[in-house]
Amino acid sequence: MKLENESLLLEFDCKGAELRRALNKETQKELMWDGDAAFWGRVSPVLFPIVGKVFNGKYTIDGQDYHLSQHGFLRDQEFEVVRHTENEFVFEYHSDDAMLDVYPFKHKVQIAYKLDGKRITVTWHIFNKDENEMFYAIGAHPAFRLDDEGDYEFVFKQAENVHQYGLKEGFINGKAPVQLDRLEVNEANFKDTTLIYDHTSEVTLINKNTQEAVTVGYEGFDYLALWRPCKEGVMAPFVCIEPWVGIADEYGGYPDIREKLGIKRLQKGDDIVHQYTVTFQ
């Protein structure tokens, strides 16, 4: 499944409603990671109904335990295309009774991709179809390709005083104030860690050698994660820019999901929209 204009060619998969490819048509350059499982077998999964991990692989609602793996289940579900125009795809997922054992809320999720020039607008529309208040988190995880000879840095929209979150075994473990302005995409900053910040709204990844860039805008999102894995001493040829609505459990977990850091609530019959943009330059 494709969207295409004079600038970009995009390809999608109904599994997870995932953007699997972005090609710059002028340069014939691949802009996204190719999903090689040697480093990471995904390209741009949607994280739902949790972001990150829940402590001991489980969470609790009203005394009942439920088990979820890292980043939830939506990325592995089959979506239906409910709208396809020249510049837009809308995918839709309806929960079924089988999922109630891991997530006890009936729901619907629409994921839309709109292409305008070199900008992709991604819209998540979440519907609570349950009889009860629904708790959720949702996040993006797009992986952008890095050139072998590139020299990359992140440039934030403005110098910002934010918090960086510490991690212990993949769980949140405290936070510290930092000022974000520019950040080199190098081994010193990324080896063996994911960088997680709060209260940012836009970041640009720039190849300083060529001035090629991609800007991700995520106004209204609570957190931003930046991830570049390292395997056997080799840094991955991609970096992920991850706007999150929600975050992993704090180390030690919670007695009830209502106390979870960053958790969102959606009342019976309500729906909500979260949106971010990816602009290639």
UniProtKB/TrEMBL annotation:
Signal peptide start-end: none
Domain of life of the source: Bacteria
InterPro entries, alphabetized: Aldose_1/G6P_1-epimerase, Gal_mutarotase_sf_dom, GH-type_carb-bd, LacX
Pfam families in the record: Aldose_epim
Protein name: Aldose 1-epimerase family protein
Name of the coding gene: lacX
GO molecular function terms listed in the Swiss-Prot or TrEMBL record: carbohydrate binding; isomerase activity
Gene Ontology terms: biological process: carbohydrate metabolic process
